[in-house]
DNA sequence: GAACGTCTACTCGGATAACTCATGTCCGAGTGATTTTGG
DNA sequence: CCAAAATCACTCGGACATGAGTTATCCGAGTAGACGTTC
């Protein structure tokens, strides 16, 4: 049960975009150069964020990606779900149906107590992620690392070399 | 981020074993026949549970697997960890180290606020799973489905054929 | 000088390989019960 | 009849194929800006 590596990239990239002036787009190439990531593959992850409605893409010169809505309205769960998919980690295969007394007309994803327990854990995980917004993260980072916002903005607008 | 299918098998198998008289061993073949699972592969999962100290294996005729300790002392987290491994789903690759101002002497798994948030969610998930023991599950199932304990015991001891 | 048409360069977007890890299977080592044989 | 030893069948245990999903890459479609040309 390992999470895709693209989740980390997506989270950091989205957080970095919160420091840009609204409406300003950043190309996938610059976002990738920020952490030395493979450009094409990061682009793929950003496309997933576009499909999820978190980012908005702009074609042509001066184009790129920008946040589709305010950082206050984007939770960590939104980003994780966009990359990993909405289905929960534990998928009940309803093996009780094959056991003694198993019935075909029963939904064991609801009836099975093991399935219920696993879903409770999954909900706790989701609740924790849904309670954190990009805006809260941006503020926390700004407090602890005051130089980060400016450095990030400069490097995203005009990368070195 | 999908969980291994063996987790479901392991959970149900361990729960079924709680209804056997203590010290009684069940072969992997009978546990597999219970839900129509592939015997060899279930055996592989049970071996992982043995390595984790949850089960104890007995060789030879009348051998098999049995719980290594009381159901009150086995949590769902124990079983899940035994199959999936102890490392958390989100593994911080410390990409901040490659960014501007990144330092090699900083552990970004601790310093990165994104990493912290993901770890909080992971801990919430683990806490939920650690709060459920096999004994609690066994009691809940016995209350809701009174026939299950007897049916399970009979079928594990003498499967139809 | 201004407006229009063309052209270019830059961007995303999806289709296409390579590789890792989970899935699935097999046969050998070990062991305890059973049977057989001798006293 | 009893005991001891050899046999045997059953079990786990790890080593070996297979397949799906993630990782990684590439090139084409589309677009906005820039340039040159013309009125």
UniProtKB/TrEMBL annotation, chains A, B:
InterPro entries: TR_Rrf2-type_CS, Tscrpt_reg_Rrf2, WH-like_DNA-bd_sf, WH_DNA-bd_sf. One of its GO terms (molecular function) is DNA-binding transcription factor activity. One of its GO terms (cellular component) is cytosol. Gene3D superfamilies: Winged helix-like DNA-binding domain superfamily/Winged helix DNA-binding domain (1.10.10.10). PROSITE patterns: HTH_RRF2_1, HTH_RRF2_2. Pfam families: Rrf2. NCBIfam families: rrf2_super. This is BadM/Rrf2 family transcriptional regulator. It comes from Micromonospora palomenae.
